[in-house]
Every structure is written in structure tokens, then in C-alpha cells.
Amino acid sequence: MTRIVVVGSINMDLVTLALRFPAPGETLLGDRFLTVHGGKGANQAVAAARLGARVCMVGAVGDDTFGQQLHDGLAHEGVATEHVRRIADCGSGTASITVAGGENQIVVVPGANARVTPTHVEQAQSTIAQADAMLVQMEIPLETVEATLRLGHRLGVPVILNPAPARQLPVEWLKLARYVTPNQHELATLLGADEHEDFRALMLRAPCPVVLTRGAEGAWYADGAELVHQPGFKVDVIDTTGAGDTFNAALAVFLRKGLPAAVRIACAAAALSVSRLGAQGGMPRHNELEAWLADQG
């Protein structure tokens, strides 16, 4: 069984479904409201667990009702939570999400996620040392992202950095990642480049291996000096929330099969996830993904 450690955010998603997005200053009647467990870190942990990995989450929740619900939700999915802290006098992270026309708009309030420290990561060192791969995102403090990259590099554990929300990072940090998994906008921000520059040129200029996600178009990655396009899979899109998290989780879980196979499986998992509502709600299980891929030929 593949062992994955995820260092990242844990949020309660407050989801509103509407026919369209409101204009500035406008009030709309929505169709439906849901509270859904989320956060990029927790999403990736749940997705990896559903795909058959043994997963440990490193993160934090608040000392509130959401915190207990989020902790219990991870445990229910089979994610190990011994490194999920409960932070006193602090609210859990939240994400306010509006879904309309198959797209989404999101406002994140970090809450307890801002209290995930380098010390917290170091305390999980014995678990990390046994992992086959690590996942880290950027909804936690940047110093903790750096600590995760450095610890993974020191222990020889491949770290997949999902640079979202996007910020420019030092080249030295990027060189510590086994793979960085941005979309086009995130890659340009990460490198301090013009986002209108051809993404293929940016990929070749990056100081680390890049697996670039392109939504319905699939993904791109480098094979030696050549860039390879993995086409996406056609599905009816219901909700794109969590698609990138599903992609990253699948990439980590199936990396042992080699990068080309892992990217193809990750594109398939992401496609399945957008055909259903909710970030974690749409994430496929291993047998479901396997059967669906077999049907694709």
C-alpha cells in the first residue's frame, strides 16, 4: 500500500449554488446551500485515501464545532489524524464557495491553518520518513511549505508541491520539489513571469520538473527535453471544485507506475471528480476509477 503524507490546510467549505455569479453590489437568490469538508490539504488527503493509499494528515483545526467535524471527517475517510492539531482560541479555516455554470469563485479564511508551523512538520518526521511521497500546498504559512520541502529532500521522500494559491517562491525552494503541479497562471506567478507567455516556454525554464494542469485539456509534463501532452477525458461538468486536488492526490498515489502513467490516471481521476458536486464528494474510489479507465480504452 502506498504511503502518503499530506501537509496542508483543512477547511469547512460553505457552498452556495446559483444560476450565475452576482455582480459587485448585487444580491441574488441562490438555489442551494451546503457545508462540505474541504481545504486543499484535506481534499488531497481524502482523495489519496479513496484511491487506496495509507494517508497521514499534518495540519490544524480550530477549537470549534467545525474543527471537531473536520477531524472526525478525516478519520471517517481512513486518514490518520495523530498530527492534526486542535488550536485553542482559534476558528477553523473556511472557504466560501459560489458555484454557477460549472465554475466556482472562492474566498478562503485561513483560521487554524495559519498556525501550522515548521515545528509541527518536524514532529511528524518519523511518519514522513516512511512515506512514499508527500503532498504540500500553499494555504499554510510559507515557512512551513519551505520546511516541508527541506525535510522531504533531506529524508529522500519525493515532495509534490501544488503551488495554490499562487505566490512567487525562491528558486532554491523549487529545486527541492520532485514535481511542481501548477496551472498556467500559477506557473507564471511562481516564476515571476508574464502569465501571457507561452506555458511551454515557462515549463522549460522552470528550475524543477513541472506537471502543468490545463483543465479539460488535460496536462503537460516533460520527458527529457521534450514536453508531452496528456489529453483530458470528456465528461459532463457539474462542479470543478477539488479537481486539482484530486489530480495531485492521484499523481502521488500512482507515481510508482512512472510519470506518464501517473499523469494519465490523475487526469482521469480529476475528470471523474468534476462530474459530481463537492470537492470531496466527487472524489472517486480506486475500484471506480479503475473500472472507468478500463472503459476508456
What are the key terms here?
297 residues, alpha/beta, UDP-N-acetylmuramoyl-L-alanine:D-glutamate ligase, four-stranded mixed β-sheet, 11 helices, 13 strands, 35% helix, globular
CATH domain topology: UDP-N-acetylmuramoyl-L-alanine:D-glutamate ligase
Radius of gyration: 18 Å
Q: Rough shape?
A: globular
Which architecture would the CATH scheme give at its second level?
3-Layer(aba) Sandwich
Q: What order do the strands of the largest sheet run in, or round the barrel if closed?
A: 5-4-1-8-9-10
Pick out the low-confidence regions: none
* Share of helical residues: 25-40%
- Please outline the major beta sheet: 6 strands, parallel
CATH superfamily: Ribokinase
Q: How much strand content do the residues show? A: 25-35%
**Structural class per helix/strand content?**
alpha/beta
Mean pLDDT: 94
Q: Report the top-level CATH class.
A: Alpha Beta
What is the tally of beta strands?
Answer: 13
